[in-house]
Amino acid sequence: MLVCLCASGTAFAATVQVEVRTPNGEPLANAVVTVSGPSSSPIATPGKLAIEQKNLQFHPYVLVVPRGASVAFPNLDQTRHHVYSFSPTGPFELKLFASGETRSVKFDKVGTIAVGCNIHDQMSAFIRVTDAPWMAITDANGVAAIPDVEAGSRVIEVWHPLQSGSQDASLKRNVTVTANAGILQSFELAVRKPLKIHSHY
Amino acid sequence: MFTRLRTRLTLFYGGLFGLALAFIAAFLYPMVSAQALKSAKGQLEATSKAFERIEALQTHQLRESAGISATDFGFRSAVAMAEIDPVTARTALANLHRRIGVDIAYLILPNGVVVSEPSAAELPPELIAKLMADETDHGALVLERSAYRAVAAPVLAPDNIGWLLVGARLDDAQMRSLASLTAIPIEAELLVHRGSSWMLTARSAEKRVEDVDQKARAPENDAIIEDRQVASMDGNDIRLQLSFPIAVALAPMMSLLGILLATGLVGLAILGVAAWFLARSITRPIAVLEAATRRIEDGDYSPVQIQSRDEIGRLARGFNMMVNTIEERTRTITHQALHDRETDLPNRQHFERALHEVVVESGYIYVGAIGIDRYSQIRDAIGYSNAASLVAALGGRLRERQMLAAPARLSGDIIGIAFVARSEAEAVLWLGETVTALELPLEVGRQRIDITAKAGFARLSEPSAGGQNPIDRASIALDQARKAHRKIAAFDADAYGDPVANLSLMGDMLRALASGSIFLVHQPKLNLRTGEYDGVEALVRWPHPERGHIRPDIFVPMAEETGHIRELTEWVLAQALKDQATLAAAGLSMRVSVNISGRLLGDPWLEQMVDRLAGKGLDKLCFEITETAVMNDPDRAMTQLRLFAEKGIPISIDDYGAGLSSLAYLKMMPAQELKIDRGLLAGLTANGRDTFLLRSTIDLGHGLGMKVVAEGVEDTQALAILQGLGCDLAQGYLISRPVPLPDLIRFLKENTHQTNHSLRVSQ
Ligand SMILES: [Cu+2]
To answer: Most exposed: A8, B25, B419, B728, by fewest CB within 10 Å?
Structure first.
């Protein structure tokens, strides 16, 4: 990827591109990339914050939200779901809502929320709640591009739900963002295989 | 060993069958035992496979129970809160434990914390590490002294918030049900490697468990072992050991062998009995034949009775034929052995046997030997065959007399007979009659033949016989008769002596010659013309210390037979010379006559002897030699006599008229003296025939230029007749007995002055 300069948005800002690969060199999708900054006020993320239930799966698999954000759980399936999380960061339970129904949950703590469905064991999603002002999720190429990162001394943090070791840990790196000078950072992250869910149906 | 054919046959067949049986067993045993072991091994392998399936099934069941439990929402929420609320988590685990009915249940949190019931054993850290590392989720597990089959199911919410580990104990009951899967009684054991030994955690055998910690794995040679490694969760070496004792595996085969052995023994017994009977049917006729051969040894030639038509029957018939032939031949041989071939008369052996069996009620048994005179001349005249016929005919004649045994031919010209008589006189009489009867003319081969015979006899059992055979004694008696020119003679033991004693007698004689106990006596000869004693005849005397006086006619012939006559003669010659010297010293110079044995005449030794003594006055002696001595080998005898004559030794012919007198020899002999045998003087009367014979003999001697000496002059009448007939010298008891030298000297001295004594007597 080439470093790309963007003049759009705020002045004295630059785009931070992060590339995440496994130790094998494979691009790692669904990695959460956040860039912290001195300005503590979070920047509202573009787009709606929601995890859909569709075709007995959560979409998206990984969602990153700023602290205090509400995440909607719209049910697009004909079946009902019982969405829950036991994660201490933000345990919740949305029981048996009907098709087309949407419920929202507000997350006030920074951390990881593992989301499951009590009816369908194979359904799994993760919500990463962060204080960082800039955030993104790597695409199928393992690349996340975060635009308009204010210039200055910053910390890039990379996290993945299947990362080896503790779920609470993350890869961190200090970088200096120069205005109008985009940077590309490469991260390597080992991951587990996704747990096989034994289906008894 | 086993000298009986029956035993051998029975043993042989029995042995053969036994050997065959042993071969079958030897082939069968390894085959069947290998089969049995293979089958047992197969059973163990099948059981081991079954254990694998059971293992999979149990794992599956555990996983299902654990999986369902792990997805229970309430349980999951309790697990999610375990760090904050461990009591709830523990009770939830206990509840689950009860609900799904497993032996152990543990909850392992992602941070390695283990939630368990208070009584539960502690999980090994290796297991937790493996779980964390996602290296295991099922397998065997050892807690304290027990093994478990366990499954770890992740608790998902929906990410992994912990593991639920449940397990069922691998206990004795499990081992038993595993063992019961096979038809054979195997043993199943679960062993865990602990350091250097093996810990037994479960077993199918309902034995008391002892020293399980130290249980060594069973050695392969006692049992067939199937060993299976059980997949473990915690890295322990856990083994399922299926074993089956080889002894038990081989037991059915052993019973099979037992049956084989039993049937074999029964077969062997049947075969033994059958072989025994078969062998008996063969050996019984053989035994009969064998008994028959033993009977033959005892002279029983009766045929064997075997009727069968097989080889044995043919053998028996052949045997009988052979026995007949042998019997025939034996009879012939026996006859030949006991009979004379020429005449078919019994032989000496037959005669001896017959004598053994002779018994008489009264009187004595006598054995006679009848000798045909001049048999060899007769045989030469009429031929051998006719001579044999003659003997046979004589035998036939003798059979007509009263005999105790069949007359037997003892030698060519002697026929032995046995007869009974009350006394020796009667025996002489009877034998005389017999010989007379035998001498009747007979015709052999169309020739009329006159024979004469002589007979000797002896008592069958004579106390003084000294163990001599009676036939020998009779034969000796015949010899004695022949020598004495008598018709019949009884055995004279004294005259014959004892051959054994004779030999020792010769030894005695040699010693006596050396010691001087043999001495010479001298009988003077009276010169009938001058009335003087012209000479003496030296005679040997031997007073034996044990046997008394031994007559010269006993020991001289013995010395002749044994060759000791040389020593005797040498001594006599030497002694005669000494005595002559003694006489000469006493003024009685005269000729001494010495008897020279006919045996020595012609012997070169005698010549040497004469040469040796030639210078010692041998020519003053006179050699008296019998007429018959010359007749044995006239040429040599004559030559030697002439030699002696040339040396000046006078020769005297002794015993003239006793034997067959040959004028031819008489004429040739260089003798100076003729001694008339005393037999011619017997019954001498003035005008008898004997006087005529005597006169012609004296005239014959004078005619040949010899002086004539008469021997055995015992009365004055005879002396007068002799003197009248012109006889030169006389010798006899009338004049003097033979006397020792001192007596002779005294006698001669007393009579020398009466020179006319004898003349006076004769007149
Ligand atoms: Cu659902």
So the answer is: A8
Give the three-state DSSP class for B602: coil
Residue A169, pLDDT > 70, answer yes
- Which residues, listed in sequence order, are joined to residue A16 by a DSSP beta bridge? A146, A183
Dihedral sign computed on CA atoms, order B391, B396, B397, B398: positive
Q: How far apart are CA B14 and CA B51, in angstroms?
A: 53
Q: Do the domains spanning A3-43+134-188 and A52-129 agree at the CATH topology level?
A: yes
Specify whether domain B358-497 bears CATH 3.30.70.270.
yes
Distance (Å) from CA B138 to ligand 1 centroid:
29
Domain extents for chain B? 5-33+252-294, 43-250, 358-497, 521-753
Q: Residue B158 is nearest to which of A121, A192, A200, comparing CB atoms?
A: A121
**Ligand 1 midpoint to CA A84 (Å):** 9
ipTM over 0.85: no
Under DSSP, the state recorded for B363 is: S
DSSP A181: B
Q: Which residues of B fall within a CB distance of 8 Å from A126?
A: 159
The amino acid sitting at A3 is: V
B215: which DSSP letter?
Answer: P
Cα separation of B558 and B275, whole Å?
A: 77
Query: What CA–CA distance (Å, rounded) separates B537 from B509?
Result: 21
Whether residue B510 has pLDDT greater than 90? no
Q: What is the pLDDT of residue A32?
A: 94
The pair of structure tokens assigned to B538 is 């030296």
What span, in angstroms and rounded, lies between the C-alpha atoms of B492 and B477? 7
- B215, B219, B107, B115: which is closest to B163 by C-alpha? B107
Q: Hey, how many other C-beta atoms are within 10 angstroms of the C-beta on B759? A: 16
**For chain B, how are helix, strand and coil distributed in percent, rounded to 5?**
50, 20, 25
Rounded Cα gap, residues B15 and A201, in angstroms:
79
Place domain A52-129 in its CATH homologous superfamily: Cupredoxins -  blue copper proteins (2.60.40.420)
- Say which of B68, B81, B159 has its CB closest to residue A161: B159
Mean per-residue pLDDT over chain B, rounded: 83
User: Which residues crowd ion ligand 1, with CB under 5 Å?
Assistant: A 81, 117, 119-120, 123
The two three-digit tokens of residue B35, written as one number: 């089969």
Question: In the Cβ-directed half-sphere of B598, how many Cα atoms lie within 13 Å?
Answer: 14
List residues bridging with B92 in a β-sheet: none
Tokens of B603: 């012997």
* CA dist., res. B246 & res. B36, Å (int): 9
- pLDDT tens digits for range B235-251: 888 999 888 888 777 77
Predicted pLDDT of residue A4: 41
In this structure, the number of other CB atoms found within 10 A of the CB of residue B582 comes to 14
pTM of the model: 0.47
Q: Does domain B521-753 have CATH number 3.30.70.2330?
A: no
Chain A / chain B CB contacts < 8 angstroms: 45
Residue in the structure block whose two tokens are 């999979």: B56
Average pLDDT over residues A93-120: 86
Among the listed residues B728, B701, B535, B700, the one whose alpha carbon sits nearest the alpha carbon of residue B622: B535
Pick the CATH number of B43-250 from 3.30.450.20, 3.90.850.10, 3.40.50.1220, 3.40.50.1000: 3.30.450.20
User: What is the least distance, in Å, from the CA of B196 to any CA of chain A?
Assistant: 38
Assess whether pLDDT exceeds 70 at residue B386. yes
Please tell me the distance between residue B156's alpha carbon and the centre of ligand 1 in angstroms. 14
Contacts of residue A96, defined as CB under 8 A and 6 or more positions apart, other chains included, come to A80, A81, A82
B614: phi then psi, degrees, rounded to nearest 5: -55, -40
| Residue whose structure tokens are 């059973």 | B43
The class level of CATH for A3-43+134-188 reads mainly beta
Cis peptide before B499 (omega within 30 of 0): no
| 3-state secondary structure at position B715 | coil
